[in-house]
Specification:
Region (Disordered): 447-469
Family: Belongs to the metallo-dependent hydrolases superfamily. Hydantoinase/dihydropyrimidinase family.
CATH architecture of the largest domain: Alpha-Beta Barrel
Shape: globular
Radius of gyration: 21 Å
Number of helices: 12
Domain Amidohydrolase-related: 49-437
Strand content: 15-25%
CATH superfamily of the largest domain: Metal-dependent hydrolases
Number of domains: 2
Largest sheet: 8 strands, parallel
Bound molecules: N-(aminocarbonyl)-beta-alanine, zinc ion
Strand order of the largest sheet: 8-11-12-13-14-15-16-17
Protein name: Dihydropyrimidinase
Low-confidence stretches: 463-469
Cofactor: Zn(2+)
């Protein structure tokens, strides 16, 4: 079946031009003018941008965490993602110490395969490195196409790994062609500060932020970057929230280390004061790392603009306020960490970034799609509009205004972290491998139609476009 998208403005990380797009067998078959012959369906994109589908490199769907399970699974989470202009996600597969890594991967396949409506891959958590893990990693890279491994430097006694584990993961990743991702906060220092706060009777949500100061993020980021330098490996720092961490990434890149950084919409538009909302509502804004003092937002925007940070993830990790966030009433350490963002990442970033002149439209595409595809072994299949690429397309009205609200969003969660925020720009139709998932703002996809993404080894495809400084 051939489809033709006409009259739209195609935008990639490098270009912006008017052309028609011919889709055949799920791929982009031709780009140009007067391609109108033979298409069974013609889609008029007049006045709209035609973007490559967003890629969200950081999601936690159907994940046990904080004594509960995230409220969005692979069905509701990927439907919401599609509404928001995202056509691929890479979700974090949690592992259990002492168990074969392949068991965890099997569990994640079971959670996702009959539910996902868009394409999806997995990162794999590493919490220990022993002979069994060292044997399994190359097989997982080869057979599962999982080419990124996540190490937590925080969440003591839950996920936290020690420096030896991080270092050995970096060495293994270098040997086999994978990217190491870190949650960079100093978990030991946080644990000390948290216990002190509780002993002093400080139990409100704001103490979540006050016991995780920016210095603990800066310290862990710098440590991970230095270990990467020693290992000669490659590192991706997830959810960068503050100036201290940006400085460490920048410093490492200036030394020639292969280090990249991701931030998230919540750190660009929300701040620490939200944790002080009355009636325990501050719990809605509990993330790790925490929201920071407002001045950090400008630092993060500038870092995205000048290339010190390279990507935007959602860190989708939704918990209902009722019954889930409420687990932390009277003890902030029991508030499950995370929030619902998957649906808003793309349009919020367009509105706050492109519309407000903070980044160019090509940078927008690079940061929400292209660079992510390059770093995580999906390019050029995903992340761009080019002949031969998957027809993952977002037809986007750049002038449509709307107000974000839990009343209208599609995530399976009872609040929005961005409630009442006005955004300009909205996905109208979204195609995954040439099939509509969202058509004129209506979901028309099918659970189970999303395909599992085996990804290429780090560095085996086109290198990230920029030269590491
Ligand atoms: O608070 C957060 N970020 N929750 C999700 C888990 C993680 O650390 O990424
Ligand atoms: Zn994290
Ligand atoms: Zn996360």
């Amino acid at each position: 079946m051939k489809k033709l998208i006409t009259n739209g403005t195609i935008v990639t990380a490098a270009d912006m031009y008017e052309a028609d797009l011919l889709i055949e067998d799920g791929k982009i078959a031709a780009i140009g003018k007067n391609l109108g012959t033979g298409a069974e369906e013609v889609i008029d994109a007049r006045g709209a941008y035609v973007f490559p589908g967003g890629i969200d490199p950081h999601t936690h769907l159907d994940m046990p965490f904080g004594g509960t399970v995230t409220s969005d699974d692979f069905e509701t989470g990927t439907i919401a993602a599609a509404y928001g202009g995202t056509t691929s996600i890479i979700d974090f597969c949690l592992t259990n110490k002492g168990e074969p890594l392949k068991n965890a991967i099997q569990t994640w396949h079971e959670k996702s395969k009959s539910k996902a409506v868009i394409d999806y891959g997995f990162h794999l958590m590493i919490s220990e490195v022993n002979e069994q893990v060292l044997e399994e990693i190359p097989l997982i890279i080869e057979e599962e196409g999982i080419t990124s491994f996540k190490v937590f430097m925080a969440y003591k006694n839950v996920f936290q790994a020690d420096d030896e584990t991080l270092f050995r993961t970096l060495l293994t990743a270098k040997e086999h062609g994978a990217l190491v991702m870190v949650h960079a906060e100093n978990g030991d220092v946080i644990d000390f500060l948290v216990n002190k706060a509780l002993k002093e009777g400080n139990t409100a949500p704001i103490y979540h932020a006050l016991t995780r100061p920016p210095e603990v993020e800066g310290e862990a980021t710098g440590r991970a970057a230095q270990l990467t330098g020693i290992a000669g490996s490659q590192l991706y720092v997830v959810h960068v929230s503050c100036a201290e961490a940006v400085e460490k990434i920048d410093e490492a890149r200036k030394k020639g280390y292969q280090v990249w950084g991701e931030t998230c919409p919540q750190y660009l538009v929300l701040d620490q004061s939200y944790l002080e909302k009355p009636n325990f509502e501050g719990a809605k804004y509990v993330w790790s790392p925490p929201l920071r003092e407002k001045w950090n937002q400008e630092v993060l925007w500038n870092a995205l603009k000048n290339g010190q940070l390279q990507t935007l993830g959602s860190d989708q990790c939704s918990f209902n306020f009722k019954g889930q966030k409420e687990l932390g009433v009277g003890d902030f350490t029991k508030i499950p960490n995370g929030g619902p963002i998957i649906e808003d990442r793309f349009s919020l970033f367009f509105s706050e970034g492109v519309k407000k002149g903070r980044i160019s439209i090509n940078q927008f595409v690079d940061i929400v799609s292209t660079r992510i595809a390059k770093l995580f072994g999906l390019f050029p299949r995903k992340g761009t509009i080019a002949v031969g690429s998957d027809a993952d397309i977002v037809i986007f009205d750049p002038n449509k205004e709307r107000v974000i609200s839990a009343e209208t969003h599609h995530m399976n969660v009872d609040y929005s972290a961005f409630e009442g925020m006005k955004v300009t720009g909205e996905p109208i139709s979204v195609l995954s491998r040439g099939e509509f998932v969202i058509r004129e703002k209506e979901f028309v996809g099918k659970p189970g139609s999303g395909q599992y993404l085996k990804r290429a080894r780090f560095g085996s495809q086109e290198k990230p476009a920029e030269k590491v400084r």
